[in-house]
Amino acid sequence: MQLPSPEIFRYCPNCKSEKITLIEGARFICPHCQFTYFHNTASAVAAVILVQDEILLTRRANEPGKGKLDLPGGFVDHDEGLEQALTREIYEELSLDIENWHYFASFPNQYLYKNVNYHTCDTIFVTTLPQKPRLSIQYSEIAQAQFYSLASLTIDEIAFDSVRSAIKKLLTRKK
Hints:
The chain is α+β, with helices and mostly antiparallel strands. Helix content is 15%, strand content 37%. The chain has two helices and ten strands; from the N terminus they run E-E-E-E-E-E-E-H-E-E-E-H. The longest helix is centred in the C-terminal third of the chain and has 14 residues. The chain is elongated, with a radius of gyration of 19 Å. The protein starts with 20 loop residues before the first strand and ends with a helix. 23% of the residues are buried.
């Protein structure tokens, strides 16, 4: 498990002390003014979109996981529910308007972005469509989006531990 980088804060944002300390990998405390910052787990959502025995996967255009496969989705914004966030993300990324989500599973993950390690709780939702939709990539972080046969998926091509876990669980249920 990789902890947040102690360099997130070099100085206390409140009193500018250089003594701010990372405690237990998730809490920064300033001994001078008692400023406390909790580096909490971020909420993220991902979509398993199925058409018969195929799943929609994206190929990442940027790090982390550049060139690897991923589920479409993203981070939950403030004042947003999980399903609402997923509907927004799928529309922003692929111009698909899907609102019929069913909870599938959740998995912990780590997302290293610009030298900050974000711990996430990735909530996976599933939907089944009657036919393949027309895909239109609208997001610069996606290099490609296409349907893959569940039977031919190679887990090693998947970018994140949470998505690999979700795909493995899905494959187990499909047998």
